[in-house]
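Record now logged for everyone:
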Amino acid sequence: MHHSPATIEKRAQLATFIERVVRPIESIQGLIGIGSIASGRARPDSDIDLIAFLEPFDMYALPAEAIWLAEDSSFHSIFSESFDAMQVDIARLDLAHWRDAGFAWPEGRKAELVHGCCLLYTSRSSRKLWRDWPEMTWIKWAITSMAML
C-alpha cells in the first residue's frame, strides 16, 4: 500500500503523541486511527482522527479537538493562531458501553472502525503499541480482545 509523504510525517508525529500523552493515561484501553491517517492518504493540512476507548470513561482524559505542540506537549484551541503542530480530532467512547451485548453500534462509527488501524491496545497483562501500522485484521482482534476484558 502506498502512503503519502504527509501520512508518513503525521504518523511519526502521532507516535510521539501516543508515547507522551496517550500511553500514560491508564483509562485509555484502546486507540484507533481513522480517516486519512489510517488510509495512508493524509495531506499536509489533514488533522489526525482518532477513536479512544476509555474505561473508566473520563471525557476530560483527552481533548475532543485540539492542536498539540510536541515541543512542550501542550494543547491549544483549533481556533488559536496558526501553529506548526499536529491537529487531533478525538472521539472519546465509553468502552463499557460499547462492549455491552445490548448496545447497537452506530453504523457510521462501525464504518470508521472497519477502515481504521489499531494504535494502542490494553489487555489484562499489558499495553501494546503497534509502530508498524497494522492492517485491518488487528482492529477486529483488538476490539474482540477488549470485549473479553
